[in-house]
Amino acid sequence: MAEADRPSPEALLAEANRERRGRLKVFLGAAPGVGKTYAMLEAARDQRLDGVDVVAGIVETHGRRDTQALLDGLEVVPRRPVEYRDLTFREMDLDAILKRRPKLALVDELAHTNVPGSRHLKRHQDVEEILAAGIDVYSTLNIQHLESLNDVVERIAGIRVRETVPDGVLQTADEIELIDLPPQTLIKRLAEGKVYVPDQARRAIDHFFSAGTLTALREMALRAAAERVDAQMVNYMRAHAIPGPWPTRERILACVGDGGAVMRLVRTAKRTADRRQAPWMAVHVETWRHAGLPEEAKNRISDALRLAGQLGAETRVIQGESVVAELLDFARARNVSQIIAGRPRGGRLPFLRRRNVTAELLARADSFDVTVVGGEDEGEAKPPPAAVRRKRLDWNGYAVAAVATVAASACGYGLSLFLDLPNISLIYLMAVLLVAIRHGLGPSIAVSVASFMSYNFFFTDPLFTFDIADTRNILTVVFFLITAFITSNLAARVRAQVEATRLSARRTANLYDFSSRIAAAADQDDVLWAVVHHVASTLRGRSLVLLPEDGRLAVRAGFPPEDRLDDKARAAADWAWANAQPAGRGSATLPTSDWLFLPLKTGRGPVGVLGVQIEAAGRLLSPEESRLLDTLADQAALAIERTNLVADIEHARLATETERLRSALLSSLSHDLRTPLVSILGAASSLVSYEGTLKPADRLELAQTIQEEAERLNRFVQNLLDMTRLGSGQLRPRTDWVDLRDIVASAIERAKKLLRRRTVKVEIDPAVPLLRLDPMLMEQVVFNLLDNACKYSPPGTPVTVWAVARGDRVIVEVCDQGPGIAPEDRERIFDMFYRVEEGDSRTAGTGLGLAICRGIVEAHGGRISAQPGLNGAGTCIVMRLPTAPPPEVVE
Fold it and tell me: How many domains does the chain have?
């Protein structure tokens, strides 16, 4: 069954996917004011009368009373306020629409750009999410908002349209309704204030609403709608296996072969497509014979496909067995209306030539118009036939053929002296097979003819003559020759197919190797080096990658290492970057450059430029190399985009973390550090203001308050300094052999004022050995843990400090009787500025104490964690400190 006789899997899959989605209908207009929103509301009201659940997600009436009247009576989803730059904007509430889940949602102005802070950047992305939820959508769009027409509209109207949508959005629409008005009618509506408000009308007429501009936009809208309808028809034909073609629209197919008129054929196809304003394609079918073509023929095919691509054709290379069958299947699948083929050069013996492609096309293409282009390409240098034959002649192969014939004859004659073998001819067939597999069709035919002569000479009566006495032997010899020809042809064909398979395998292995390299690359420099090295080695030349830096392209990687380009190459690279099109050698732009530059494009736009220079002077890339280079460029662009996204995510994470730390630090400075300062200022002002009236006891109490709050302030500042030293790596323990009991006792003495009205229980196992610690830093850790326990436990509850030796670790715990810490917060409390949320009862502090404890403990090679207290009451901060062999006591 031919490909065109069965449904296309891609088309069937697309139809299946559409069944699970909502349907999108776009009301397409050539310009603002033609009545798109009005037509959308009329259609919505008709649906509502038919019982369809309709809601207006967002509809822009622009103050038009007629439009507002149609909106009245429809359910409208309230808009969502979005704050941006101290202003409040009201955007479509996507979540409300998804929660409401109507059958049909109205979403006006498909090309709208959402206010920053919205879920999606563009409104068409909101529509995509609504469709994915199974909700039908009606929307509106002006033709000037299509991305592919953006530059065309700018040239025609002189206005750069900032809000655009990808062409794929319109292509995925299930239905398009064209809303059209004559230019003069639209200009009249504008003058009457029915399009824009009056103070904008004059400027709009001068810059956009002229008769010529509106006519051009109207034609583009009609063409876009026709192309979308045509694409829907082709998809329908492919999904339902309709052979076609349906001549609803002209499509031209140029059959590119190795004939002498191939360039003329391409230009003729271009002129034909231009006259009919039809799309056209240039297709070459690559069969098993391609590997055996001479270099001149391969170059003609490459040049023709390259020329077709430069002239705007879609170029394709199809692998297949039959040229005509593949061409017809492709033509039916693409609904082609006309096929243009070339007439091959005639030979001296026409009756010996096989039936050519053009003749077979004329015989089988009943549903297509076939145009035959004759003549030769002007200026083509045609080598003389003798030179061509000498160039194609494989002397080594023919020598092997002669040797194989002699060896087969000797072997057969030797065996015939001792054995009566009736099938000696099989020895010659073996020689034919071996030569065909090794050297191809020409030498195999030569060995077939030589074997025929040798078999007749040595093994048919009368022997050692070319005469044949028995008429039965005549048939034997003739059939032997026919069998040898068929065998040699089949073997040569298998050999060519093996070579083609080997070439395809090398290409696949090349792409796989490249994908593996760039996937394993960790950063952008590794990716760029992998790209330039692989491209240079694959194409046997030089390679560069240029990326934008400070507003201009800069060479970021090269193989061999290169960081300079001449003026021609620089101009080609800049043009390829600015226009997202190939430039340089072998392209239509700046072809005098020695370099070919390809833009590295992704869905987000261009990310850089890939440059290639072929070592062989004057050689251009073949179609196979061009396709391979395009694939490598696409993969390289995705790899570079991946590294850019990783860098963007890392920068965003660092920025977010920096902002969080800054906010936390400012919060601590403004609240927690201010509290002791207020107490100090209050006590000091009381001493100054009431110096003569204060009793000694009151004066002492105020002085103690100043001292306590100053010490508290000093602790906060010390924590900040310690955290800064930890973060910069400057806090390094000065270890010595110390007794843990001394450290705990010193910390309790230092925290005596904090531990008033509390009981501190110290339980240290006598087996705890001396530890190699920094006594001052470890005292700070115990002090911070005691301070933390006092802050987060009720007054009067005990605080327990106990330690025990277990293996090569000493376990130290500081426990309180507070409310405890939730499991999800037990790790986060060691982060800087983090404190467990406690509503209005938030305890004063910077949130640095435990972070400093972790830094100091880990600097000693230990670990610290938070665990629930005994019987689940309170919290225990557990430290695991490493032990070491005790010091030697010198007596």
Answer: 5
